Amino acid sequence: MKEFVLLNGNVVSSKGIHKADVLVMNGKIAAVGTGAAGRKNIPFIDLKGRHVLPGLIDVHVHFRTPGMTKKEDWVTGSKAALAGGVTTVLDMPNTRPPTVNAHSLQEKRKLVKAKALVNYGFYAGATPQNFQAIKKMKGVAGVKIYMGSSTGNLLVDDRKVLEKFFSDKKHIFAIHAESESCIHEHMKKAGLSNDPVIHSAIRPPECAYEAVKEVLHLAKKYGTRVHLCHVSTQKELDTVRKFKNENVSVEVTPHHLFLSSKDYAEYGNLMKVNPPIREIADQTALWEGIKDGTVDMIATDHAPHLLFEKEGSYPTVPSGVPGVQTMLPLLLNAVNERHLSLEKVVELTSANPAQRFGIKGKGAIEAGMDADIAVVDMGLREKVYRQYLWSKCGWSPFEGWVLKGWPEMTFVNGNLMYEWRARFGTIKGREVQFDR
Ligand code: NCD
Ligand code: ZN
User: Fold this and answer.
1) Cis status of the peptide bond prior to 66, with omega within 30 of 0
2) What integer best gives the mean pLDDT of the chain?
3) Counting ligands in written order, which one lies closest to the CA of residue 309?
4) pTM for the structure as a whole
5) 89: phi then psi, degrees, rounded to nearest 5
6) How does pLDDT run across 82-104, given as a tens digit for each residue?
7) Residue 60 CA: which ligand 1 atom is closest?
8) How far does Cα 284 stand from its chain's mean position?
9) What span, in angstroms and rounded, lies between the C-alpha atoms of 144 and 147?
10) For site-directed labelling of 102, which of 313, 332, 372, 405 has its Cα 20 to 30 A away?
């Protein structure tokens, strides 16, 4: 279908919701309004009042290509994204080999181009040595800096190296802010244990706070643009509030919003993740940060590991949880429970990510934008079933949760790529362009 109309929708932007038809032509939104359906002989889909959201932009996924495709590949990762209303993903560099120079970026581009069913962009990964090499990596979403070690071997825990990177005004630096020395200190204190709860003690809030403090200090000194990944504690948010300006953006994840340390009893190592799941007080602080605008976006840190890998004993289990498929239904359910508005969901998952990263043509249902669209049914109540999880990892911490509000159709570049509950298109996505 090159041309079609979505009839009788409720179009959602970060500013409001209005009844409208959406005319799609050649992969773009051609018109939005009550007159959009005025043209005869165009195929249409009657949405009967369902909500029309700009496709979600998940600025933090690990789709594992190259080198870890047993955990995820771009077909399974894309399908999970599509079923979750996500039409664009920005992929992290901690692959094997890591994406740390022009050559590894080129190789990744080739592999992903042949498989992706959603739109995509790539981060470059910072290492102590690749300051020059990163300059040759064209068209990246940003530069990821791991200040604390996590899955993979990317780490920059040397202040001098960090300062060198921060003097670069061209890029956005996406920071995994946990202090490596702080983690080591707490590891020594904690000693050996097989209890998954220990993960939250080894990487306590103060390790995140220390790193965030350093980042904000350096960002101010150099005027660097920084994006704080997966902020998870009250202390980080309070610090951000003091230093926030247009150069600083804050991301939180669904797992930090919807899980807390009391859930270790049920999930154990399944919820081992960096930064760790926090106490209820921190979880509450994240929701406050959403309300008062300190939080700019929600992204998943979709980090799939296979079930058998997550079933080992604590020290051997890799950190990371999948999330790209469940983010939107969790948030729609939260809208139904009045924790936030649907407009706010669009702001946090589409409008702000597009604006902050300068992703061309995305983030709103408006004439001239790309036709990346999630149609959602706010009244649909369903369980998260394993059988309908599309990530190759095959599990989710949210399995069995009954959620009200689900994506029913997902369009990417004007192509119907997902239809509730198991129908997928085959047309490839495109690499996004950044406006900077
Ligand atoms: C991520 C992974 O598995 O790639 N794991 C995680 O716990 N978040 C790595 C990361 O980004 O920290
Ligand atoms: Zn991550």
Assistant:
1) yes
2) 97
3) 1
4) 0.98
5) -130, 145
6) 999 999 999 999 999 999 999 99
7) 11
8) 20
9) 10
10) 372
